[in-house]
Specification:
By secondary structure, the protein is α+β, with helices and mostly antiparallel strands. The chain folds into three domains: 113 residues, no CATH class; 90 residues, Roll (Pnp Oxidase, Chain A); 139 residues, Thrombin, subunit H, CATH 2.40.10.220. The protein has seven helices and 14 strands. The chain has a six-stranded antiparallel β-barrel with strand order 1-2-3-6-5-4. A six-stranded antiparallel barrel has the order 8-9-10-13-12-11. A hairpin with a 4-residue loop joins strand 4 and strand 5. Helix 1 packs across helix 2, helix 3 runs antiparallel to helix 4 and helix 4 packs across helix 6. The longest helix is centred in the first third of the chain and has 37 residues.
Amino acid sequence: MAAFIAITLLLILAGLFIFHAKKERSGNWIQFFAQGKEAGFTIKEVELLRRLAIRCDIDNPTSIFRSQKNLEICIRSMVQGIRMSGEGEEQGSQDFLSKLYDYLKRVEMEKPEIKSGISSSRQMDEGQPVRILVPGIGVYRSEVVKNIGHYLTISRPVNNKITTALQWHGLKISIYFWRDDDAGYVFDTDVIDEVFSKGISSLKVEHCDSLFRTQKRKSLRIKTNKAAFLYLADSSDMPGRIEKVPGLKCFLEDISDTGCAVRVGGQAESGMRLKVQFVVDNAPICMLGTVRSVEYRSETNRSLLHVQADPLPLVMRNHILGEIFGMLPEDDEDELPFRVLEEEAEAAPMQAVDPSLRFQEMSSE
């Protein structure tokens, strides 16, 4: 009799455990769908996310809406699934993948280290490129040489188009700069003195403890050193259209889904329309865009072009975001004809596509 009672109690307890477990799982999935909708996904997309979370064995599926690590696990699984199924060009898969990348980018951009900025010129780094506006004269290039407690030292500003010699001491100037992975800043200051610092003709300027933050970065980028080809763009060019012949050799220094920075030989000017072509994940990427700013180094006769890209085709954008977030495998075999062009870029210099650019051949460093 005692054994019967014990078995009955065990069965009741097991039933209660199963009931509560099912209830808990049901509650979790209700919460999962609620958080998915709040994050901006459709019911169909949340269901796809639910399946991804189960396939990836995520202990707490709702965590993917706040945990970058778990979200990346799900996206990586989806990328691998797309590649294995051969559905890389399927519109629905690329649309969903793009939306996942956008959400992942939002999670990354909300990190405190990304959102935080600086408030004083005392926080500027040595080597920081800056633009100097002299009212009524023009804009000059410079960089931070030394930053100590009492003043900021910048290299003597240069502008090859302005031949008028300036007496900098006592001038009121505005300093603009873009801080990596942060935003643009501007402040007004006075030139204290003209000096030599670290063997460089320089200016001492007063510090400013109330910087104005002009623009927050809207995209994430990564540093790279890829060989690439540069082409002049014309009105008939469309974003993503691949060039079949090599262009001017250049090197890609950073990349995002909204633009890139490329280094070329010679001197260039802002406002030019260009195409930058390179390879990501064995896939050719052709970025059409406008040169928004140029950093020219006269000592090396090289220019760093900051290119703002036109909207990219969805598949190309997803490839770039996959590269940025480390979602792409590193051991793929060569599978596209453009791979030959990448090898050419690594092996040999090339001729400029248009002498009016004043660019020169570049070789590997």
